[in-house]
Amino acid sequence: MPGGILFGQGLQRLLSWLATGLAAEMAAFELALVVPVFLGLGVIAYFAAPEEPGLVVPMFLTVGAACLAYGVRGRWWLHVGLICLTAAGAGFCAAKLRTLSVAAPQLSRSMAGTVTGLVLSVEPRLGGSARIVIRPVSVEKLEPAAMPGRIRLTVRKGSEIQAGDSISLKAVMRPPPPPALPGGYDFARDAFFDGIGGVGFAAGKISPAASPVEASWAEALNIWIDRQRNDLTRRIVETIQGENGAIAASQVTGKRGQIPGDANDALRASGLYHVVSISGLHMALFAGGLFGLIRAVLALSRRIVLYRGTKELAALLSLLPAAAYTLFSGAEVATVRSFLMTSIVLLAVTLGRNAITRRNVALAASFVLVTTPEQLLGPSFQMSFAAVAMLVTAHEQWSRRKREKSAMAWERAIGGAVTVVLAMMLTTIVASLATAPFSAFHFHRLTLQSLASNLVATPIVSFLIMPLAMLALVAEPFGYGAPLWQAMGWAVGLFMQVARSVATWPGSDLVLPQFSAAALGLFALALVLLTILRTRLALLALVPLGGGVALAATAPLPAALYGANGYAALVRQGDRLTMLAQRSDAFTVQQWLLAMGDRRKPEDPSLASQRLCDSEGCSAPIEGGGVFMLDKTSNAAEEDCGRVSVLAGPIPIGSRCAATGIVMDRDLIRSAGSIALYAEPPPSGDIGPRWRLVMARDPQASRPWAPGRVTPPPKSPPQPALQAPAGDSPLDSIAPETDN
């Protein structure tokens, strides 16, 4: 039987290849690379729990696993396994401790009232409005024990407010909103860890508080920094007019609120949005430029050159300015993480160690997961560390090449130029591929032309924008900053020409439907294997990669998405989508359209072609041949009961209707946040689809950022969902990064 013999020989060769590779991997194994993976698994286990876990038992088991690991150091497999278990327990406990450390009251319902407090920060917005964060000392209709620690409000144009002001104003507020769709970005969770217990907008005149609110020393420092950032932002925007000024200011101060929407769209479509978020690229250029400058100055001293070493001392002296840049740019999550990674590299240079290693990436990731574990769930952490890990892995492979030195100077010059171009291309390709799954999952977009845009734009940022920004910052206190700011604005104009040109190319970005977290997990596993494995066993990453692609490609589309406090829905029938929403729900509908793989805007008239509305509700055909009815009044719901496939509305709907079809009423949507409705094939003999509901939150679960019990509002006619003024999107603060 030749076939059987060939199969046996192939299997034997495969097992031999696996055994050889495993032996090589064990010889080169670094436990430090595995620790952040299991720390992350522990963090995920904490956040996935339906009820808030305790701390004593998990901490006891973690300490026990650590003691056992120490006691079995001679047994390699058992020792490594217990270390991994200890890391998972440490991640779980770190997440619990972090939750306890930031716990503060949150609003339980929408409300309006007078708020008095201290302004902690001011974010200028396009059109003259601003977004402020207040530490309240009193909130009308709330007892002090129920008062949020911080409230974020949008104020109208003309409101002259600065950080540090004590103010009193009438505000319309609500709890931080839940995810716009199941599996989407959870603004309420991020707001909880930022200490924000309510969001809304000012509804009247803003006046000084009756008595000044005293700031703590930490608040006073943050207020001073915020004022300096806003003063410099105003100076840059006044010197450089238009969108170039807003983008230039974002590079220096981190204030991105004044960038026009069309500029943001062009940057996203061209794959260059990471440039306006101060992260790895800016920190590397800033710290690297300082390192070179300080080293050049130190080289003027013979004693330092001979006895101290300029490289090590320059790396150490670069840490303080890099920390100052981090604080001055707002110390946002991405900036702090980039500073941490840069600090590890500079300390490695100071100690004479190899700076760019996978171990240093693992150390940075472990530090972030232990101190701020909630970052793991956000796109910023995932995309940053995916890009950095793969770039470092590619750098190590590149460094192993055997390069022959050319004898002629011109040959060395040409070879160096070719190497720089190839390195830039490889960097962009590797970072884009590493971050693509996370960009597709969180933002439903793939940028197909990022190689071309980054290849042209990165030199503009590296050799023009950032050097001019550094020179302008030095010259500004002496009154000579204006010419350099104007030169920086010219360079930003070149950069935006690249972004707008690439954004107009056919297929510059691809909109993808939402896929499951399981698919994202398989993509992440493939990246982990590529990062950890050093031999040809890294090819095993193709298995989870293929599984992730298969799951993402076959993900079903929901028949309807329902949310916005019960006032909006997006209904699908075949390839046609119908929007049932008000204009104030445009942000939520935009997220739904992207999750459906549709790039249209909510105001597109084709989204209303199948909609039928009257004064009491709207209807649209739904997958499976039925009707989705969104009613606004109880009388309309009673009339439509049993007549439609799906009945929904921001009103209580009686239990009698639930027996005749799918019902999604006020109580359900308030506890679930948002709902995806799937139409599945019916059992044999049944007519019509079988409906499956997927909720953004489990109504039976209870977590500090998503309490299971919903406080009923006062008895009054239902009101539309509260919306901040246009442009105040919860997603403004999470720009996608690639750290190219």
Automatic annotation (TrEMBL):
<dbReference type="InterPro" id="IPR052159">
    <property type="entry name" value="Competence_DNA_uptake"/>
</dbReference>
<keyword id="KW-1003">Cell membrane</keyword>
<feature type="transmembrane region" description="Helical">
    <location>
        <begin position="338"/>
        <end position="356"/>
    </location>
</feature>
<dbReference type="Pfam" id="PF03772">
    <property type="entry name" value="Competence"/>
</dbReference>
<feature type="domain" description="ComEC/Rec2-related protein">
    <location>
        <begin position="252"/>
        <end position="535"/>
    </location>
</feature>
<feature type="domain" description="DUF4131">
    <location>
        <begin position="56"/>
        <end position="205"/>
    </location>
</feature>
<keyword id="KW-1133">Transmembrane helix</keyword>
<feature type="transmembrane region" description="Helical">
    <location>
        <begin position="511"/>
        <end position="530"/>
    </location>
</feature>
<keyword id="KW-0472">Membrane</keyword>
<feature type="transmembrane region" description="Helical">
    <location>
        <begin position="537"/>
        <end position="557"/>
    </location>
</feature>
<feature type="transmembrane region" description="Helical">
    <location>
        <begin position="456"/>
        <end position="475"/>
    </location>
</feature>
<feature type="transmembrane region" description="Helical">
    <location>
        <begin position="487"/>
        <end position="505"/>
    </location>
</feature>
<feature type="transmembrane region" description="Helical">
    <location>
        <begin position="26"/>
        <end position="48"/>
    </location>
</feature>
<keyword id="KW-0812">Transmembrane</keyword>
<feature type="region of interest" description="Disordered">
    <location>
        <begin position="696"/>
        <end position="740"/>
    </location>
</feature>
<dbReference type="InterPro" id="IPR025405">
    <property type="entry name" value="DUF4131"/>
</dbReference>
<feature type="transmembrane region" description="Helical">
    <location>
        <begin position="78"/>
        <end position="97"/>
    </location>
</feature>
<feature type="compositionally biased region" description="Pro residues">
    <location>
        <begin position="710"/>
        <end position="720"/>
    </location>
</feature>
<dbReference type="GO" id="GO:0005886">
    <property type="term" value="C:plasma membrane"/>
</dbReference>
<dbReference type="Pfam" id="PF13567">
    <property type="entry name" value="DUF4131"/>
</dbReference>
<dbReference type="InterPro" id="IPR004477">
    <property type="entry name" value="ComEC_N"/>
</dbReference>
<protein>
    <submittedName>
        <fullName>ComEC family competence protein</fullName>
    </submittedName>
</protein>
<feature type="transmembrane region" description="Helical">
    <location>
        <begin position="414"/>
        <end position="436"/>
    </location>
</feature>
<feature type="transmembrane region" description="Helical">
    <location>
        <begin position="55"/>
        <end position="72"/>
    </location>
</feature>
<feature type="transmembrane region" description="Helical">
    <location>
        <begin position="272"/>
        <end position="293"/>
    </location>
</feature>
